[in-house]
Design brief:
alpha/beta, disordered N terminus, 38% helix, globular
């Protein structure tokens, strides 16, 4: 079986020996991870371990070396916008909203790289409102006027407007109250039940582990564990890998 065929076997994402540098700093050592169709996987690790570097390299927001296959296709040479067009959408830490634009305008920008017919856009808007009814109530408000939780809902909603096959989220609960974090996580769980593949970086590790089927633990720029999420029951369990 050739390399590409192996990469496509029941896998949505197949990352092989991906590495990245910031100047002379080797922030991500050669790293391989995979994610199956419709799977929810979380990446955990201490601050500075390389979690964000890994997902930014997957989306090519930073230069990297290595191979990336998506649904069996080698996308290693594709730029960021082409990876998004292929179905990989990332919700970055900090949300990246256009604060002086309305909720509606931010959502419409999310569908820019995909089918932009009026019917398709309307269907995707309605689907987003079903997940996040508050966005419909605030459709004409500027994004900057929303609460932190509402802004995160908008960031996720904007990503969903592109109809992703893989949704990557970097710290979606950052700065949010526990109740709002739980609400966001339940929405991610519902999206995953609908068949969306999700790769999740989350500072609230035990919250993420309730959703994920598998977990990669990264420390000092390299993967140190790949195991079922139910094998980690506490922060103590995680610490054993963090300081491996």
């Amino acid at each position: 079986m050739n390399d590409t065929a192996e990469a496509g076997a029941n896998r949505l994402l197949d990352v092989r020996d991906l590495s990245a540098r910031y100047g002379h700093v080797h922030a991500l050592k050669p790293t391989s991870i995979s994610l199956g169709e419709g799977e929810l996987v979380t990446i955990l690790g201490p601050n500075g371990a390389g979690k964000t570097t890994l997902v930014r390299a997957i989306t090519r927001l930073i230069p990297s070396a290595g191979r990336i296959y998506f649904q069996g296709r080698d996308i290693s040479s594709l730029p960021t916008h082409e990876r998004a067009r292929a179905g990989i959408v990332m919700i970055q830490e900090g949300r990246g909203l256009f604060g002086q634009m309305s909720v509606r305008e931010n959502l419409l920008l999310g569908g820019y790289t995909s089918d932009r017919s009026a019917q398709t856009i309307e269907e995707r808007l309605q689907s987003t409102f079903n997940l996040f009814p508050r966005l419909k109530e605030r459709l004409d408000q500027n994004a900057s006027s929303l609460s932190g939780g509402e802004q995160q809902m908008l960031a996720i909603g904007r990503g969903l407007m592109a109809k992703p096959k893989l949704l990557i989220l970097d710290e979606p609960s950052l700065g949010l109250a526990p109740r709002v974090s739980a609400e966001i996580m339940e929405t991610l769980a519902e999206l995953n039940r609908q068949g969306l593949g999700i790769l999740l970086i989350e500072q609230k590790a035990l919250l993420a582990l309730k959703l994920a089927k598998r977990v990669y633990v990264i420390s000092l720029g390299k993967i140190v564990a790949d195991l079922p999420a139910n094998e980690i029951d506490s922060h103590h369990d995680l610490a054993r890998y963090y300081f491996h």
